[in-house]
Amino acid sequence: MAVSRTFSIIKPDATRRNLTGAVTKMLEDAGLRVVASRRIQMSREQAEEFYGVHKERPFFGELVSFMISGPVVVQVLEGEDAVKRNRDIMGATNPADAQDGTIRKNYAESIEANTVHGSDSEDNARTEIAFFFTPEDIVG
Fold this sequence. Notes:
This is Nucleoside diphosphate kinase. By secondary structure, the protein is an alpha+beta fold.
């Protein structure tokens, strides 16, 4: 496998509970390296654009409101097969279905407040990384 990059967000439920370091440690322990990271307060416009793929879904409004409810940490992660590795350590979207030892099993409060977002493909990772970071921001 080749080294690749993926995108991650540590969501407001985790930053509110001061879990940024614990989540990042789990990512790093899984073999991913943080090559860019920034704590931001997402605007409504940013959240609506970022999650635009879900615009027609019934949960879109709640998702946007949740994502702007507090600070988030946006990150670029690098490692062998980074997208898959990140998705494996995140665990299932619904924490009740997540495997023991995953971020969502350990820290998520609910299916809505599920601690982390991660890219689901290399193409989406490139798009999501470019949404928040310039190439100069990534210092691997």
